[in-house]
Specification:
The chain has 427 residues and is an alpha/beta fold. The chain is built from 15 helices and 20 strands. The radius of gyration is 21 Å and the shape is globular.
Length: 427
């Protein structure tokens, strides 16, 4: 027997959420640049997503900058910008210890999550991640179930009865299977009525390795589409977005276009300039810790303007902001960013020095993210927007997805709104 689904509203970070009376699923496709969806749909690989788009609402939205995984996943699950979450990237220089650390722990998160608030309001919440690095960060104060493709069942603090069968860790995080684990686990939990409020977030290994038209990318998106179809047939309210886009970062010779910024600054500044590659995480096969945004810390604060001007003069640099300007313009936490925030042009990445980055570990030509060129992401929901919501909504951000799914959609048209509607929804 299907259990009753709680619909009590709750408030998180100044927003009021009114969850639907159906199960809700938000899917974040890591590295899910809109061009991957366009290529897969154009190749006829995503009929269920095509049906979702035709029956609901679809557009593009902006991700947070720098366009990295942790900063955007934290924003999505809190419905708030980085200035509120306190998460400024994957990696930062801790001002209290002067050490470079990963921002993986929920102890770095400065605000409440939608997931924790939903669990207190009576929803049965699950978080399924591909990367273990995200699980703790996203599950702050959660009374629910959390899994990662790397670790299997990690936490069942909600004490939910689980479906038969086990969630085994995937053999290799550097595979398409890591992302498919996330969707399949979500489907299994929803179909078994174990949970009714899910956040699913995949990994971008395939997007880092292959362009949208590649066979490997098309196969992944086709397989993801089958799981999306299973979710839609079960009558869920669904939202799909991404944490960032993805672009090639190579020249015509296929070699990475890298600015080793700390190395370039060393002749004039010595050790007084420190470059932090905020993309850094344990998954170096993806990107060799090379992204299109870095933080620069300077011992001599009086030299900030002249160093900024020098960096702006370098080929491959798009934007250089002071920490103060970046905090204001990009809504970043002022105490967790550098004296300078530097963004590369679309086809460049920025590193520290040649010895810091192991380019030999890459699986193919470098593809990465972090800059403005990777800020545009898909934003798709399974129902049309309410008229009043559509009239008043500001420019959409990826972290608006839970708000739209909970408060911005028209009610369902029938108890089984997706069953038998269009060829894509038929078995």
């Amino acid at each position: 027997m299907t259990r009753r689904i709680a619909t009590a509203p709750f408030i998180v970070n100044g927003r009021s959420y009114h969850p639907p009376s159906q199960p809700l699923v938000v899917l974040c496709i890591d590295g899910g640049d809109p061009t991957y969806l366009e290529s897969a749909r154009g190749a006829g690989k995503m009929p269920y997503l095509r049906e979702l788009v035709s029956r609901g609402f679809s557009c593009t939205a902006r991700a947070c900058l720098p366009s990295f995984t942790n900063i955007n996943n934290a924003a999505i699950v809190t419905g708030a910008p980085p200035a509120v979450t306190g998460i400024s990237g994957n990696y930062f220089l801790d001002p209290e210890t002067n050490e470079e650390v990963m921002m993986n722990s929920s102890s770095f998160l400065r605000c409440e999550t939608i997931l924790a608030a939903a669990s207190r309001a009576g929803r049965r919440v699950a978080v399924v991640t591909a990367k273990e690095k995200l699980r703790d960060l996203l599950c702050k104060d959660l009374e629910g179930l959390s899994l990662s493709a790397e670790s299997g069942i990690v936490s069942n603090s909600g004490d939910f009865p689980l479906p038969k069968g086990s969630f085994m860790p995937v053999a290799d995080i550097y595979s398409a299977e890591a992302s498919l684990f996330v969707l399949r686990a979500g489907v299994q939990l929803l179909e078994s009525d174990a949970v009714d409020f899910c956040y699913l977030t995949t990994t971008d290994f395939i997007q880092h390795c292959y362009p949208p038209e590649a066979k490997e990318a098309l196969e992944l998106y086709s397989a993801m589409d089958r799981e999306i179809g299973r979710l839609l047939r079960s009558g869920v309210v669904m939202g799909v977005t991404a944490d960032h886009g993805m672009n090639p970062k190579t020249g015509s010779d296929g070699e990475p276009k890298v600015l080793f910024l700390e190395e370039l600054l060393r002749p004039s500044l010595g050790s007084s300039a420190r470059v932090i590659c905020t993309i850094t995480d344990p998954y170096t096969v993806h990107h060799a810790s090379l992204g299109s945004a870095v933080m620069v810390y300077l011992k001599d604060k009086a030299g900030i303007p002249s160093v900024a001007d020098h960096i702006r003069s370098l080929d491959g640099i798009e934007t250089v902001l002071t920490g103060e300007d970046a905090a204001r313009e990009l809504d970043l936490p002022a105490d967790r960013i550098g004296d300078l925030v530097v963004f590369a042009q679309k086809d460049f990445v920025i590193g520290k020095d040649r010895d810091y980055h192991d380019l030999s570990a890459l699986k193919g030509p470098l593809r990465s993210h972090g800059g403005r060129a990777e800020q545009i992401v898909p934003f798709i929901v399974s129902r049309p927007l309410r008229g009043t919501y559509a009239e008043t909504i500001r420019e959409l951000r990826n972290y608006d997805i839970f708000d739209v799914c909970c408060s911005g959609l028209i009610p369902r048209v029938s108890p089984h709104e997706h069953e038998g509607r269009g060829d894509a929804m038929k078995e």
